[in-house]
Design goal:
By secondary structure, the protein is α+β, with helices and mostly antiparallel strands. The chain contains 18 helices and twelve strands. The chain has a five-stranded mixed beta sheet.
Length: about 425
């Protein structure tokens, strides 16, 4: 469910020149909510919100619900206040993923194998190789929308352009259930019509920073040099990306079968908590889930991240890149605890007392910097070496095991002394 602003002036006929427009961005309309309507037709044209429970957030909302100001990541309790007559349903990810897989297999992959899936309901498609059969990108967009509607009783919006940025912005402004073609010669004019938040990747913080430099919209952004943007953003990479985007340019290619970038687990507490033990208990469970997923997929991770959401729904993250890639909870969990205490600037006294300085609503752990186990050179951990020992060791091996376990205890004791004293 996108919250990117749309411009009524952008949803117009920009011309019919499709030459060079070989990138499509396909975005399902209100996907979770639409899937529920597809299997429960009686919900059609009713305000439908996906998300239940006083501690949950909205995962999706039908267009009928959005007129009440409901959007994704909003607390369900707030959504109920805004739309008390709304129909609230729980998230059914298994069902949504099943429908998504069928759409990608039965529809999108019938056009080309150059499909980059971004999420369960969104993808880019390079159709340059498919034009010999289809002649024009607009023919492909029309067929896709017809097939999705006929086979699955869902709608999608399609953006057609020469690059990924403009194609995505076009599909956003084509919603709901529309197609928007932006000819290559018109893409700069198209993007410069937008507010800053109209460019994907510009969030609230970036918008505030740019406006503090007198950059009010994409048109004024386009008048800045890369050097000026680097001063404004403090980043050469961000400056380069913003400069290109403000002129309707994007150097990224459509990459099919994108490798998994991260694996994570997070949970919302039933009640906000300031207990270090409670949060660490959850981080331990999340670490176990992440480690299990890494091993099942035969992956190693080099970077670990802890995420915290506070009572006001604001969230922060903190990451650390390890010297050696890992896939064991025995390594992930102590690092998660260390990140937790570091990101909250907890003193030794606070750690000993076991009280967090802020109420925590949600906590989670994720692993990134992934690589295949068989392709990664890694020194075995003490845990790995212990697991490889003979199940009935001789006296010499018993002594080695005892020493190894003592060393492990010493290493673990370096992380979060408060957690150790709390019996975690």
């Amino acid at each position: 469910m996108s919250t990117t602003p749309r411009m009524a002036a952008a949803k117009r006929d920009w011309g019919s020149d499709e030459s060079g427009c070989t990138v499509l961005h396909i975005d399902m309309d209100a996907f979770y909510a639409s899937c529920e309507v597809a299997r429960h037709p009686e919900l059609r044209e009713k305000p439908l919100i996906i998300g239940t429970g006083p501690r949950s957030v909205v995962s999706a909302a039908s267009y009928e619900a959005r007129v009440y100001g409901i959007n994704s990541a909003m607390a369900v309790s707030q959504a109920r206040r805004l739309c008390p007559q709304g129909i609230f349903l729980p998230v059914d990810m298994h069902y949504y993923r099943t429908i998504s897989a069928q759409i990608f297999t039965q529809v999108f992959s019938q056009i080309t194998d150059q499909v980059e899936q971004v999420s369960v309901d969104e993808c880019y498609m390079n159709v340059s190789g498919a034009l010999l059969r289809w002649e024009k990108p607009s023919n492909i967009a029309r067929w896709i929308r017809e097939q999705v509607a006929t086979r699955f009783h869902l709608t999608c919006s399609v953006g057609i352009a020469s690059n990924k940025l403009i194609a995505k912005m076009a599909s956003t402004n084509a919603k709901p259930d529309g197609v928007l073609l932006i000819p290559e010669a018109q893409q700069a004019q198209f993007v410069q019509l937008m507010p800053l938040r109209g460019i994907p990747g510009i969030g609230q913080a970036s918008e505030k920073r740019l406006k503090s430099w007198g950059i009010e919209d994409v048109a004024s952004l386009s008048r800045c040099s890369e050097e000026e943007l680097q001063q404004a953003t403090g980043s050469h990479i961000s400056a380069r990306n913003l400069f290109l985007a403000s002129h309707g340019l994007d150097e990224r290619a459509v990459i099919p079968h994108t490798p998994e970038k991260s694996i994570g687990a997070e949970r919302t507490f039933l009640h906000d908590t300031s207990s270090l033990k409670t949060v660490c208990d959850l981080l331990r469970k999340c670490s176990d889930e992440v480690a299990s997923s890494l091993r099942n997929r035969q992956l190693l991770a080099r970077t670990l991240t802890v995420k915290l959401r506070f009572e006001d729904l604001h969230y922060i993250t903190k990451s650390h890149t390890l010297r050696m890639p890992v896939h064991s909870a025995a390594t992930i969990y102590p690092e998660a605890v260390r990140l937790l205490t570091s990101m909250l600037n907890m003193s030794e006294e606070q750690i000993k007392q076991g009280t967090l300085p802020k109420l925590i609503r949600l906590a989670g752990v994720s692993a990134s910097g992934l690589s295949k186990t068989e392709e990664t050179a890694v020194q075995p951990s003490l845990d790995d070496m212990l697991q490889e020992q003979d199940p009935q060791p001789d006296k010499a091996q018993q002594a080695q095991l005892a020493q190894a376990e003592k060393t492990l205890d010493s290493i673990r004791g370096r992380y979060g002394t408060g957690a150790v004293k709390l019996g975690l």
